[in-house]
Amino acid sequence: MKLRWLRLTAGLWLAVLGALGYADLVSRARKAWVAEPALGNLESDLDGWMAEIGLAARHRYVHTEEGLVHVLEAGDGEDALVLLPGLAASAGEFGRLIKRLASRHRVVAIDRPGTGLSDPIGFSGHPRDPWVRVIATVADQLSLESFILVGHSVGGLAAGAYATAHPERVLRLVLLSPLGLERRIPLLWNLVLLPGALDLIAAADRARRVRMVSRCATGAAGGVAPGPWLSPAQNYRLGVALRFGPGSDLALLSRLIRPLALHPQSLLFPGLELVGDRTIVVWGSRDRQLPLTGARAAFGRHPSLKLRVVDGEGHTLPFAKPGLVADLIEAG
Q1: What is the pLDDT of residues 146-196, one digit of tens each?
Q2: Ordered domains of the chain (ranges, CATH)
Q3: What does the alpha-carbon distance between residue 291 and residue 285 come to, in Å, rounded to a whole number?
Q4: What DSSP string runs through 104-140?
Q5: How many angstroms separate the Cα of 189 from the Cα of each of 65, 178, 203, 278?
């Protein structure tokens, strides 16, 4: 009975700390003894994973107004294709999709600021304009005059924002379960943005990852770190997670939405009509992160948009079915 009350008291105390936003102190304390991998190590881990799946890709780093942006480049096709991952994802995690597309295209996959091997987020306010500047700078630096633009989830919002700002450079726009087609968003997205929730989620995620790795080994300096006991793919994913954590993505999410709705800057209509006849939207029928039901009405109001629904698939469609998604992207 005493232990039960102690657990209850501790739980209530943590809830109070979270509500006040002080759980960030816990996250920072954990980060102090969790070894953050060097960028060189992350790049090597990513190279190892790409070698395992047979992907030959090149690392590029582009200086932008928003910091140093990492780019994966693969293939030498005549047509260029720019890929933008979504929330909590990085370019390297799209390796299998990049491999399929690189057989016919020059593929450029961009790590948005705050993801993958790019610099942390340094801008303030809504990310739409910074994302457009990043894409424009990468396109200019890599001499991409015109290209197919593909965005997944939050990356779909970034892709749509760029396409409406620079429609003359977008040959075709492909949005994979994109954010921005519907004003309403799932209630869960609002709940994670309650005061203190970001800190609690970040602290819990870091603790979970620490426990996972500590079962495998302990770093030489006494801190938990990736190492040879994990596969290159696991090392890469863990390293990126330790580098940024979920707090970064969720803090970004708070800039995209307001209570129960998207911020006006997060909406793609009506500007998307500029490239409506060149736009295809791909959605999984069982997507729970961004349900299709909320956005379906938009297709009735904007008949120029083409919708492709993949039965039985969820929000991770680009990872689960890379071959099918590659075919849909190329079919247009």
Answers
A1: 999 999 999 999 999 999 999 999 999 999 999 999 888 888 888 888 777
A2: 29-37+187-257 (no CATH), 39-185+263-331 (3.40.50.1820)
A3: 8
A4: TEEEEEE--TTSTTSPPP---S-SHHHHHHHHHHHHH
A5: 29, 15, 18, 30
Whether residue 87 contacts residue 114, with contact meaning beta carbons closer than 8 Å, is answered with no
Q: In a 3-state reduction of DSSP, which class is residue 283?
A: strand
Both tokens of residue 173? 């726009």
Radius of gyration of the chain (CA): 20
What's the chain's length in residues?
332
Contacts of 274 (CB under 8 A, 6+ apart): 163, 164, 167
* pLDDT tens-digit readout, 1-28: 555 666 666 666 556 655 555 444 444 4
This prediction has a pTM of 0.84
CB 85, CB 112: distance < 8 Å? yes
226 token code pair: 């990736």
